[in-house]
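User: Structure please.
Assistant: Input sequence and predicted structure:
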Amino acid sequence: MRSAIVAEWVIARFTDRERAAAVVGDLLELAPERGPLWFWSGVAGTVLAATWRRLVGFGTAYLCLALLQWRDVIVARRMLLERQMIAAARGVAALPPIQIDLVHIVIAVLAFSVTVAAAYAVICYGLRDEFARLALAVSAPSLLLMFYWSKLAVVLSASSVLLGVLIYFVASGLRRRATLALAVALVAGYCGFRFILYLWPWYLQLVPLSPLGYSLSAASLPVLDVILQVVACDWAHWLVCDRTRRPLETAHA
């Protein structure tokens, strides 16, 4: 009996309580014949079936973030090399440091965050979901703005596309809720990551490094960033899209 309560509680963390109770009831009917090992393997299989999309979505989102960081490093190194060549041609030691515009920083943060959200949402919610469509539509022009900020033609084209996408999604009620959900997810994910960065120096003082010199240090920050962003996506999607869609579906039924 205690095993059934624990199993139902575990499954309910990833599904609703009604489905968890039904699954545990079905497993309990055959558990006396097949044993406790079969029972818990059935519980594990149910949890895996309910979470595999999120696991794959998390892995894809982390891969996207790693590729963007790698691409960003390449762009930064190329810009540094170009500046060194220009300085050498002018016969000076170095050029003045690049002043990064605040707008460019905001666009870069948006591009990284919305790309992570899009990779996760497309796999977890599917392309039929308005939240996933919006995240995917916003990520492309945002990345163009971030990587080609110095090219006026690209900036104008990407800005026009981004503005058109936002106007299209604000035009109707269902898409408007998806826009609100994405905005909430991006703000929540960013604020959570900034809070982690604020606490990070205190954490590094409390937790010593391993003999290999590794701990939860800067190398794990991208993982935490993705975790916070995908959790924010699930929370905002449930809060704004799922909770508002179900009463409408019930009313129409």
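The radius of gyration is 24 Å.
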